[in-house]
């Protein structure tokens, strides 16, 4: 099997299988569609490489996003729960909304208490269940191995539960998020310059170079996204980025030892020189009043296209779910990923 298709296989394996009714045609439609996801917040720009554990070493809190939209989507993902309507002007907790009655929803998969989820200490406390020795989480701190700190500084804790720093969402509880308060993710933005068949770099109508990034299709909703993932308890963000991008998947790759080494070397090389593009709140459809997504997004640019950039990922007959996509304002992507890519394009001086 050619190396490029092996790479495609391992991305498909780790990234998420394609959902029904998704295929290359759908991708094409997405890419040529004209509706934009509006950017409501300016993403941060850091000029130096990120330290090994950005969560621990961050000194200045990230700015809080002013508004969220996807976090108020009418039906909560993977459920039939309708959010209590929150108009734009009532998002902020500082604006009174006396009739506000958010739906209390925590999914069964979270209530089963898998290792990535907190105990529902509210229920345990109400039941007077002392046998489980339930302790109140240490908000705004590193709580054992669980990082309950926000990139945006201290969040409020009201009635014993953290309060979404951006505002109301129409749902309280944790929805399908495991942690009360911040749920930390990391997003690698792997880029290269687009080249034509002759290997020449492609420019747009304004003579700006066109950059491409690796996109994957999410299993839960079919949307295209960065190949990010959750930071495990006790894990540093750089590890998550690397792991999510391929280390685990590499184990399942049907490549011979030499090929594996080649791929691994390219990834190691690239991941040694990342630039932070964003850290903070993500406007994610899973957010609730008491649990929300935060991320650190980092750009890894293969400037000469000789490392990871030489792998030609392409959608196969069965909709591979991983591909190089052109950076463009026309993209429709999961959560706030378009904002991270806009900053990446600015940073690279690429076409947008
Ligand atoms: C995804 C990340 C995303 C984060 C917030 C995680 O589940 O893997 O790519 O940035 O959620 O939306």
From TrEMBL:
Residues 193-347 form the Nudix hydrolase domain. It comes from the Eukaryota. One of its GO terms (molecular function) is ADP-ribose diphosphatase activity. Residues 39-69 are annotated as: Disordered. Pfam families: NUDIX (PF00293), NUDT9_N (PF25969). PANTHER family: ADP-RIBOSE PYROPHOSPHATASE, MITOCHONDRIAL, NUDIX HYDROLASE. This is ADP-ribose pyrophosphatase, mitochondrial-like. It comes from Plakobranchus ocellatus. The lineage of its organism: Eukaryota, Metazoa, Spiralia, Lophotrochozoa, Mollusca.
């Amino acid at each position: 099997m050619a190396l490029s298709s092996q790479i495609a296989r391992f991305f498909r394996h780790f990234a998420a299988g394609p959902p029904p009714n998704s295929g290359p045609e759908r991708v094409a439609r997405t890419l040529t569609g004209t509706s934009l996801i509006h950017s409501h917040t300016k993403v941060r720009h850091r000029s130096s490489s990120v330290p090994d554990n950005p969560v621990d070493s961050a000194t200045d809190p990230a700015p809080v996003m002013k508004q969220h939209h996807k976090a108020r989507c009418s039906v909560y993902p993977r459920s039939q729960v309708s959010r209590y309507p929150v108009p734009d002007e009532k998002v902020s907790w500082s604006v009174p909304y006396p009739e506000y009655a958010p739906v209390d929803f925590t999914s069964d998969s979270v209530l089963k208490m898998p290792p990535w989820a907190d105990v529902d200490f509210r229920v345990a406390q109400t039941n007077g269940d002392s046998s489980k020795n339930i302790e109140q989480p240490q908000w705004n701190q590193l709580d054992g191995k669980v990082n309950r700190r926000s990139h945006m500084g201290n969040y409020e804790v009201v009635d014993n539960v953290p309060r979404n720093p951006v505002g109301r969402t129409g749902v309280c509880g944790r929805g399908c998020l495991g942690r009360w308060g911040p749920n930390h993710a990391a997003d690698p933005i792997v880029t290269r310059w687009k080249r034509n068949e002759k290997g020449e770099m492609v420019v747009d109508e304004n003579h700006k170079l066109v950059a491409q990034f690796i996109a994957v299709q999410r299993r839960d909703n079919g949307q295209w996204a960065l190949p990010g993932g959750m930071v495990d308890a006790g894990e540093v963000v750089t590890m998550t980025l690397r792991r999510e991008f391929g280390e685990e998947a590499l184990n399942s790759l049907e490549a011979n030892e030499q090929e594996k080494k080649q791929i691994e070397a390219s990834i190691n090389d690239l991941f040694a020189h990342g630039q932070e593009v964003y850290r903070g709140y993500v406007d994610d459809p899973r957010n609730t009043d008491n649990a929300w997504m935060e991320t650190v997004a980092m750009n890894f640019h293969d400037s000469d296209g000789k490392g990871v950039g030489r792998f030609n990922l392409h959608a196969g007959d069965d909709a591979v779910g991983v591909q190089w996509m052109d950076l463009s304002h026309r993209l429709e992507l999961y959560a706030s990923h378009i904002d991270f890519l806009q900053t990446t394009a600015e940073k690279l001086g690429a076409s947008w």
